[in-house]
Amino acid sequence: MQSPHTAIDLPWERFSCVSLGFSLEKPDFHRVASAHRRNAFRCLTHLQELGYRRIGFAMLNQINERVNRGYSAAYDTALRVYPELEPVPLFTPDN
Length: 95
Prior knowledge:
The chain is an alpha/beta fold. The chain has three helices and four strands. The two termini are about 20 Å apart.
C-alpha cells in the first residue's frame, strides 16, 4: 500500500490472502516482506567497518512508517552495538 497503516474493509473470508510489506495494517493477513531492519543494519555495519563514525539517517517519515520503522530501528540498534558511533539526530520529514 502506498500509505502506512492502511485498512481495507472487504469480505475477505472467501479469499486466500497474503500481504506484501507492512503498510496494510488491517486485516492482519500472513505477510511477505523484505528484512528492512536487517538490511539497514548490514549497511550501517559496513559503514562502521570502513571507519565512518558520524553516520546520519535521512528518510521520509512515510517510508519508515511503511516498514514498521525498521530502518530507524536499525539505526538505533547500531548506535548501541557500536558505541564508537557518534549519534546524529534522525532526519525523517513528512514531505
